[in-house]
Amino acid sequence: MRLRFTQRVHGWLEKRFPEKRLFLRSDQETRFIRLRSETQLVAWTGAALVLAWTIIATAILLMDSIGSGNFRAQAQRNQLVYEQRLNALSSERDIRAEEAVAAQNRFNAALTQISMMQSELLRSEEQRRELETGLEVVQSTLRNTMVEREDARGQLSLLQQDPDGQKAASLGEEAAGTVDLLAAALADTAAERDLIAADAQFALNHAAEKELELRLLQDKNDEIFRQLEEAMLVSVEPLDKMFRAAGMNPENLLSQVRRGYSGQGGPLTPIQFSTRGGPPDPDAMRANQILGAMDRINLYRIAAERAPFDIPVKSNFRFTSGFGQRWGRLHAGTDFAGPVGTPIYSTADGVVTHAGWSSGYGRLIKIQHEFGIETRYAHLNRIRVSVGERVSRGERIGDMGNSGRSTGPHLHYEVRVGGTPVNPMIYIRAGQDVF
After folding, report:
1. Is the separation of the CB atoms in 341 and 385 below 8 Å?
2. How much of the chain, in percent, has pLDDT values that exceed 90?
3. DSSP state, 372?
4. Taking a C-beta distance cutoff of 8 angstroms, is the pair 257, 295 a contact?
5. Which domains does the chain have, with CATH numbers?
6. How far is 145 from 125, CA to CA, in rounded Å?
7. Distance CA 413, CA 87 (A)
8. Fewer Cβ in 10 A, N or C end of the chain?
9. pLDDT given at position 267
């Protein structure tokens, strides 16, 4: 039965692939090669497999190329959005700072004018009290004078009965002149009192107008402070989230940065609205809180430049291997595949501690950053920095290659914290979520 099945298969192959002979002729003899049906089937099958493999490989390469182009375009868009947002925040910060300084100047000018009006009012009140006291003295003197005048009239009537009447008339005229002088002084004093009262009323009205202007100015200052507080809140929270997503404590981080930048003075000096003592001014407290938030953003900016929140490859590339176990061993970084010579950039400010050959890494660059963070760039084709050189974020440090233990051109990128490898994508994604 087995023989019959074999014959049927052979007969089917003979119909599809009839036996052929390939003749090879030379000067002396002629040879031929017999191509059996089974041999032709194997050859056609092999050719079909090679063709299928070629089509599949070409499709994979095209898909990888399209994916790399999309990721590069997305990275460029993210970089552009990050720069635009930084510029907008910087412009908004400068505008709000100028508005705060202008509001402070207007507030101080209003306070100075109110203080002057209050001083003028106090002087007017003091003068009014002095005039009232003087008026009382004049009135008392006048009353005494009138009493004396009545006495003088009585004496005059007695003296008129005396033969020496001419002397009595002289005394009466002198008393009448004294009374007229006192009456004129009293009238002048009353006129001056009325003038001072009018000045005092004008000062009160002007003070009321200034108080209204001061309240309007305070309302405007409250609106400016509210907008600044909202802008600071929107700016600080994403930065807090970015550093926490990278496993870093923001408070400890800012303390380290602040110790390195401990100078004082400049636009972020705390505001003092009054030097008269007493409890802190509420506006000064709000302004100083906003300045504190601006200082926090500035410290975050410095920290972000010193932590690897950027991506080392900005040209077209594709991810070929991530962080984690691979073939039973820890793959301590992330691989970015691309053409030989693709530019490699530093992901943060730092100092180059190694720039040379390192066994399986091939050509390797190590950069030491702040906060105990180190980045490594392996399998390079060319190294463009030297040991001890300080590099900045985004500075080109080498070219992608295939040196060391590598199966193709790519960059092996590592991030180590305190010597322990961590997933570089944690820092890259944290930076992309914010920037």
Report:
1. no
2. 20
3. G
4. no
5. 2-56 (no CATH), 57-306 (no CATH), 310-323+330-434 (2.70.70.10)
6. 30
7. 30
8. N
9. 43
